[in-house]
TrEMBL record:
PANTHER family attached to this UniProt entry: HOMEODOMAIN-LIKE SUPERFAMILY PROTEIN, HOMEODOMAIN-LIKE SUPERFAMILY PROTEIN-RELATED
Subcellular location: Nucleus
Compositional bias segments (type: Pro residues): 65-74
Name used for this protein in its record: HTH myb-type domain-containing protein
Example GO molecular function: DNA binding
Keyword annotations from UniProtKB, A to Z: Membrane, Nucleus, Transcription, Transcription regulation, Transmembrane, Transmembrane helix
Ranges of compositional bias, category Polar residues: 83-93
Transmembrane segments: 185-206
Top-level taxon: Eukaryota
Segments of this protein annotated with the region Disordered: 59-93
Length: 224
DNA sequence: AGCAAAATAT
DNA sequence: TATATTTTGC
């Protein structure tokens, strides 16, 4: 029995969700609709993939089929939960380059002509919203909550180097548009508040995050 | 900030 | 040609 216990613990520890494994779950809850909405293709008709590849080849960087670096999201500040900070110790405040998300970075492209790092005021290559980048966007929105989910704060929370407020704003516009449409397709509503639609989904995403926090906390407690 | 439409790039 | 992203005007 004791051996079983140790085995159980080993297995339990082994099955602990790593940041890498956590992603798919969040995605699963969001993707079926979101992925469809944003037309995120996986492999077959991958115009997005093609774009990414094109961008990669354009910036003479190797194309990564598998996204290795789990994107740590900065600390959550505007959350409606002022309780404990977070059950996720791996969260860190670090800037991420667009190249990490397989998107173009003006800095890399401009290395030949201008070498101008001050991307503002300069025309940067159009941003490619890769699934990963979009995931980060969604996470940021979920973290911020409805109140603070404005382009500026979202951009700050995403902390992706090279990402402009306009990028986020335009994407957020599209995002809301989709959520709105999604609500319209939903049963019977139709009459609900216009803004109230995407609020619900964001709330749901937030709940999912809290769920995982609780799980982590629980694991911490029973393991101690 | 937000929205919609036009413009432009892929 | 169609779609994705940006720009523009309000």
């Amino acid at each position: 029995m004791r051996e079983d216990d140790s085995n159980w613990f080993a297995r339990w520890e082994d099955e602990l969700p790593s940041p890498d494994k956590l992603m798919p779950i969040t995605q699963t809850l969001i993707t079926p609709d979101l992925a469809l909405a944003f037309d995120i293709r996986n492999s077959t008709n991958s115009s997005a993939a093609a774009a990414v590849v094109a961008a990669a080849s354009n910036s003479l960087h190797q194309n990564q089929p598998v996204p290795p670096p789990p994107p740590p999201l900065p600390t959550s500040s505007g959350l409606p939960s002022p309780n404990h900070n977070n059950g996720n110790p791996s969260l860190a405040t670090s800037q991420h380059n667009l190249s990490e998300f397989a998107a173009k970075s003006s800095a890399e492209l401009g290395s030949g002509t201008g070498g101008n790092e001050s991307a503002r005021t300069l025309k940067r290559p159009r941003l490619v919203w890769t699934p990963q980048l979009h995931k980060r966007f969604v996470d940021a929105v979920a973290h911020l909550g409805i109140k603070n989910a404005v382009p500026k704060t979202i951009m700050q929370l995403m902390s992706v180097d090279g990402l402009t407020r306009e990028n986020v704003a335009s994407h957020l516009q599209k995002f809301r548009l989709y959520l709105k449409r999604m609500q319209g397709l939903s049963s019977g509503g139709g009459g609900g508040g216009g803004v109230g639609s995407w609020v619900g989904l964001v709330l749901m995403m937030w709940r999912v995050k809290m769920m995982w926090r609780v799980r982590f906390y629980f694991c911490w407690v029973i393991s101690g």
